[in-house]
Write a structure and sequence with these properties.
The protein has helices at 2-6, 9-42, 51-81, 87-111, 116-120, 127-134, 141-164, 173-235, 285-304, 308-323, 415-426, 431-446; strands at 246-253, 261-267, 273-280, 330-337, 342-348, 353-357, 362-366, 385-388, 394-398, 455-462. With 463 residues, it is an alpha+beta fold.
């Protein structure tokens, strides 16, 4: 897993950015060193008064700055191509980096007018630990360790040469040896830090990749749910039915992208209109699938079964086998509407259904006439409740999402009493206006509380 993360495009991109930063910083260091050479020469520095030492040092640091410019350019090109640079370039860059301070010490060693010991312990020595610590940004622990050890070995070799040639007294050797040991320790420290940094970066990249994967999965799921919602919307009636003497309207608002409520209307062979409203337990994609199946059974059965109670019995027999293993059930109410105003109403555990009487302005409530669909496979529903709608009367079939919507703050439900009051207050309007009036009353009562259940309703008004 770690190997796949470090070879991922995301990790390699971060590696390239870190390498570019390292090259920029080291280039700045060498540029500052180059400028300081000229300043010290102008100011009459005794050491840089030596022409050979000055020219060699300027040439060295000029080459160092140019090389870092090359590394920066190549790194940027690799970043644009989206591919890591070749391994040989990393090795070459690391070798040149440590060679610069070692060469600076070597120049001092060969041309110093102030003594070999001072040359081996002067400012150029600071370049070795600086290069070693900056190598951490390569995020390659082995290179950091090798850089520190290579610097120590090179310093030891220069020190040994100085002792051998008599340029350094023997009693200075332990001090020079300790300088080398410090450089070795610096390499080990850089190795450890680079290893930790690489590990942390690997974890960060792994988390980023997982987050991106999860985000893509979430977006895919949201896309699928959007499609499911569009399909479900397509299953709802696209326009109000035309029934002489009636004004009919419906609405459905799921609590999530998809829901388990639905309403439908369909003409049967004798010219009457079957209006159905159902509520599958729960809300979301599962109930939405059950809803689609229930709707299909209802539409197929309505053509063959003009009796409302028999229709509900037939739907229950068909849906029970599908729901047996799910633990779900469906409450449903069916109204069979005749053009003369007669209504046959039968319910499978669904209620309340509200009936507003224009004469007297009272509201009647009907409960369920039998158990929900899917509970008792061989249940026979009926007989249907029969009544006649007079001019101005309103029949409202709705799901419990309206009554059970809780108010923000105290959590009190809207309830049936407020529902009947809202119906009575808007009953003089059109079917659509009544729907909107009831819906607005519930939402105003909720005072901003989130919808937690699907809300679906059908209004049948005699006009």
């Amino acid at each position: 897993m770690a190997e796949s993360i470090t070879s991922s495009a995301s990790f390699q991109a971060r590696l390239q950015r870190s390498e570019r930063l390292r090259a920029v910083l080291l280039g700045v260091v060498w540029a500052v060193a180059l400028i300081s050479l000229f300043i010290r020469r102008i100011k009459g520095d005794v050491l840089l008064a030596n022409d050979s030492l000055f020219v060699a040092s300027v040439a060295l640091f000029t080459a160092a700055v140019l090389f870092q410019g090359y590394v920066i350019a190549e790194t940027i090109r690799s970043m644009h191509r989206g591919r890591p640079g070749p391994a040989w370039r990393w090795v070459l860059s690391a070798g040149v980096d440590i060679a610069i301070p070692v060469a600076a010490i070597g120049i001092m060693h060969r041309h110093t007018p102030i003594g070999q010991y001072e040359a081996l312990t002067g400012p150029p020595l600071l370049g070795i630990p600086l290069v070693t610590m900056l190598s951490i940004l390569r995020l390659k622990p082995v290179i950091s360790l090798a850089t520190g050890i290579a610097g120590a070995v090179a310093h030891w070799m220069l020190a040994a040469d100085a002792v051998r040639s008599g340029g350094v007294e023997v009693h200075h050797w332990p001090t020079l040896f300790m300088y080398g040991m410090v450089l070795c320790v610096t390499g080990v420290a850089a190795w450890f830090i680079a290893r930790q940094a690489r590990g942390h970066l690997s974890e960060a990249v792994a988390e980023a990749i997982e987050s991106e994967r999860s985000q893509r999965a979430l977006e895919s799921l949201e896309h699928d749910l959007e499609i499911a919602r569009d399909i479900q919307r397509g299953l709802l009636p696209g326009a109000a039915p035309e029934v002489e003497g009636f004004d009919i309207a419906g609405m459905a608002r799921p609590a999530q992208q998809t829901g388990g409520d639905y309403y439908d209307w369909q003409r049967v062979q004798d010219g009457r209109l079957v209006v159905a409203l159902a509520d599958v337990t729960g809300h979301g994609i599962g109930p939405a699938l059950v809803m689609a199946v229930c709707r299909a059974y209802a539409r197929a059965s309505a053509i063959q079964t003009p009796d409302s109670a028999e229709l509900l019995t037939r739907i229950n027999a068909l849906i029970s086998a599908d729901l047996a293993a799910t633990g779900r059930f469906i409450t449903m109410v069916i109204a069979l509407v005749s053009s003369d105003g007669r209504i046959e109403l039968v319910s499978a555990g669904h209620g309340p259904t509200l009936l507003y009487r224009a004469r007297g302005g009272r509201v009647e409530t009907f409960g369920g006439d039998g158990p929900p669909l899917g509970v008792i496979p061989d249940e026979r529903y009926g007989p249907a409740r029969e009544f006649t709608l007079e001019r101005g009367d309103v029949l409202v079939m709705l799901t419990d999402g309206f009554m059970e919507w809780k108010r923000a703050g105290d959590g009190e439900q809207f309830g049936i009493q407020r529902l009947t009051t809202a119906l009575a207050a808007s009953a003089r309007g059109t079917a659509q206006a009544i729907l909107e009036g009831v819906d607005q009353a519930v939402r105003a009562f909720a005072a901003g509380a989130a919808q937690t259940d699907d809300t679906t309703a059908v209004v049948i008004k005699r006009v």
